[in-house]
Amino acid sequence: MTAMVEVKVTVPLGVISGTLNHTVLTATSRLSPTIYASVRDTITVYTEPLEPPKKYIFLPLVMRQ
Predict the structure, then answer these.
(1) Is the separation of the CB atoms in 40 and 22 below 8 Å?
(2) Which among 22, 65, 62 is positioned nearest to 45, based on CA atoms?
(3) What pLDDT digit, counting tens, does each position of 11-33 carry?
(4) Core-most of 7, 27, 37, 40, by most CB within 10 Å?
């Protein structure tokens, strides 16, 4: 028997780019606990560099009469 499994991982704020996390998922038979399969996945966190904040200069409007 085959089944699709979706695993959703939420990375907490402040985690440094390049951080590794290893996840192991094990499926065990309901009929026999000696029948199982495991898979290991490695997750690497990549963050994109933040753009520097934009700076605005507000100049006064000068009008001639």
Answers:
(1) yes
(2) 22
(3) 888 888 899 999 899 999 999 99
(4) 27
